[in-house]
Prior knowledge:
Serine Protease, Human Cytomegalovirus Protease, Chain A, 10-stranded mixed beta sheet
Amino acid sequence: xxxxxxxxxxxxxxxxxxxxxxxxxxxxxxxxxxxxxxxxxxxxxxxxxxxxxxxxxxxxxxxxxxxxxxxxxxxxxxxxxxxxxxxxxxxxxxxxxxxxxxxxxxxxxxxxxxxxxxxxxxxxxxxxxxxxxxxxxxxxxxxxxxxxxxxxxxxxxxxxxxxxxxxxxxxxxxxxxxxxxx
Length: 182
């Protein structure tokens, strides 16, 4: 077909699932940490995701939550993705109604799966002082739950949903008591 351009290949990075927590199918953590070189020598710089996140919001689209980067196996939804001083923070829900979601939840709870990975296209990069790439602008496509995170410190922790529910109930009770008192 004349004039047809093939899309550039999707790049993936297994990255920062550090602090990821399971709460009644809810997970959160860092999909990327700024200034920390991954095992491939790439370092994401602050602001690298900003343009992509703005474009997604403007177009009403979402970053996909996939199982092991497989586009045929979405396992949930990311409800919040934002850059902060530390990196790319993500919060979402794994859907237990989906077979791959149930598998992911079981493996996370068992400690067999412990990372996040980003799927993206590099828009702008430069060589850094260590000889790797400094990723300056990234088009973020997906964040996957994965077996092997690129950063060695990427880990998943689980939280008991009933403890969290109890904490929410206590907080609500205290808020109601404060409202009644004054």
